[in-house]
Amino acid sequence: xxxxxxxxxxxxxxxxxxxxxxxxxxxxxxxxxxxxxxxxxxxxxxxxxxxxxxxxxxxxxxxxxxxxxxxxxxxxxxxxxxxxxxxxxxxxxxxxxxxxxxxxxxxxxxxxxxxxxxxxxxxxxxxxxxxxxxxxxxxxx
Length: 141
Hints:
The protein is mainly beta. The protein has helices at residues 3-12, 39-48, and strands at residues 32-33, 57-68, 75-82, 90-96, 108-122, 125-139.
């Protein structure tokens, strides 16, 4: 299963982001620097407790991952971190609102932005998922 679709499926479990009414967020207002050592655990918690993170500013260092939607041909980019308990498996956050010129899948990047939710189709149903609205992105050498 594509990583992007896996993320959407994960969010669908328990309807994490589809509560009635306005979304309430308890996210901190200042930039949160997510260390590489806690990337995986933090992103997992973001999916499990989105209200604690939505609207917050985050700084990540991770791997740029690109996936292509087989139906539309659209390319989506995410920042990924490795699962320390299972090397080779990871979890990420989709990135939007930026140019990926000069970047390639597999590059190590530094990215900052605001955590938000978006809607998209997953297995024929509209679902909400997490997305980082990028304010800055750069390749790490």
